[in-house]
Amino acid sequence: MKKLLFLATLLLFAYQSAYSQQKMYQPIPSDKPSKGQLEQINRKYGMFIHFGINTFHNEEWTDGSKPVESYKPDTINADQWVLTAKNAGMKYVILVTKHHEGFCLWDSKYTTYDVASSPNKTNVVEAVAKACKKHKIGLGLYYSLWDRKENGNVKDSLQDVTYNQYMINQLKELFAITKKITPVVEFWFDGSWVKQNYRWNVNEIYQTIKQAEPGCQVGINWSIGFPYNIDKTAHPYHQKAGFPIRYFPTDFRLGDPDLPSNPDPKNFTHDGKQYYMPWETTVCMSNKWFYHTEDTTYKSIDELEKLYNRATAQDNILIINCPPNRKGVMRDRDAALLIELRKKLNLK
After folding, report:
1. Are the beta carbons of 314 and 263 closer than 8 angstroms?
2. Strand duo 138-144 + 184-190: pairing
3. Is 41 inside any structural domain?
4. Which domain holds residue 340?
5. CA distance 280 to 312
6. Which residues contact 100 (CB under 8 A, 6 or more apart)?
7. What is the CATH number of the domain that holds 42?
8. Is residue 23 one of the residues assigned to a domain?
9. How many domains does the chain have?
10. Do the Cβ atoms of 298 and 304 come closer than 8 Å?
11. Is 25 part of a structural domain of the chain?
């Protein structure tokens, strides 16, 4: 018994020593952008790519009950997706890897609700990463914290520990894919509003990402709260310097599809310290995030020009959503409008 206790003590000591040797990442209090934030600001303009099981149901949000067999793109032309962004003058793409319904665009060993169980088993994350490397453009990833299949009953806080570990496991899977191919420059999290901020394992998420990719900028949708209630969303038109950071640690602010105010405050607080946080605007090229057969009304070039100029002023960033269709290709109208916009903006 003593020998077992001694061995257990040694194992615990070894685990604690290994953990203590890991670098712990935290944003540095500052009223100026960090190196990573400057790189993000300089990227300035990118593409959102919403694609998944919702693409095949004319719905923006599904609940995890759509049969995996219904995901059946003809192909995954990731090269065309990324080249469309590159030709538009964009510096990076953000791929939706898992939306609120929980369907994963990679082969995850933690669920069967993924491409590996579908008619088209292409690992979309890997395909897009390879296309980003080929065309020398940045790779960003979107991941929904809210998962209506794995954690549908969000009122049950007893599920949090198990589900939070599920997320960490999946984030590690994503980096295991991308690490062999190209760096991840940005991680975009969504769905946080369904639980109180303290119920998300934000610090563990942040450490997992930074230990895999220290330069990756991390943002969580609806990033800022009110001084009197951190879980009440402060839209850009509410935000004032010194308002609390709702999810800490993070690196930039989100709140789709809101545009930044003018003037746009940049300094927000956590635990009595101020942190610089730029704003990233996310808007649709047409009316929907995912492809819909009836989504045929697009923003005009003049409207897109105004959006670009407002969203990228004041050291902020714009990403425009362009959803691939059910054939697995970008729509011709998206590509044509983006080229026209690039010419109008005189982007290099």
Report:
1. yes
2. parallel
3. yes
4. 30-345
5. 8
6. 61, 62, 144, 146, 147, 148, 190, 191
7. 3.20.20.80
8. no
9. 1
10. no
11. no
Radius of gyration for the chain, computed over Cα atoms and rounded to the nearest angstrom: 21
The per-residue b/e assignment along 284-322, b for 16 or more CB within 10 angstroms, e otherwise, is bbbebbbbbeebeebbeeeebeebbeebbebbbbbbbbb
pLDDT tens readout for residues 43-92: 999 999 999 999 999 999 999 999 999 999 999 999 999 999 999 999 99
Residue positions counted in the chain: 348
SS (H, E, C) 159-228: HHHHHHHHHHHHHHHHHHHHCCCCCEEEEEEECHHHCCHHHCCHHHHHHHHHHHCCCCEEEEECCEEECC
C-alpha span between 6 and 112 (Å, rounded):
41
C-alpha to C-alpha distance for 57 and 71, rounded to whole angstroms: 9
Structure tokens at 346: 């005189």
Taking the mean position of all CA atoms in its chain, how far away is CA 16? Answer: 31
Domain-located, residue 19: no
Tens of pLDDT, residues 119-155: 999 999 999 999 999 999 999 999 999 999 999 899 9
User: What is the structure's pLDDT at 204?
Assistant: 98
- What tokens does 12 get? 């615990």
Q: Find where tokens 């850009």 sit.
A: 236
